[in-house]
């Protein structure tokens, strides 16, 4: 097994994001942290999320748009006869930034396209306008992002 390694190469970090199935976002609600897994899309140093227009994360983001995130790929448990020698092989990305609610219709469609492509769909896409308008699209402007791996 390899050692724990910091990943600083932006292309490797983007590769991890492209393979990750979910992104966990961490929000701060006064003195209480709040974390939730979400479907996501990534492009050009921005992360796009979609959700309902109402709910706890929307309420928190309206009060505090600071956001942290984590995604992992290729994670597996390495077992051993000795439980104390179990290990984890993984590649992960953590970062933070500012969340912004996307209101512009064309930008919402762009975010939905990026999300759809992340999960293997091939465009071009046609979205029904009433569905796009009903959704909340959140764009995270990434300020800082690093990667880490173990066992590679």
UniProtKB/TrEMBL annotation:
Superkingdom to which the source organism belongs: Archaea
InterPro entries in the record: Pyridox_Oxase-rel, Split_barrel_FMN-bd
PANTHER family named among the record's database cross-references: 5-NITROIMIDAZOLE ANTIBIOTICS RESISTANCE PROTEIN, NIMA-FAMILY-RELATED PROTEIN-RELATED (PTHR34071), FLAVIN-NUCLEOTIDE-BINDING PROTEIN (PTHR34071:SF2)
Protein name in UniProt: Putative flavin-nucleotide-binding protein
Species assigned in the record: Methanosarcina vacuolata Z-761
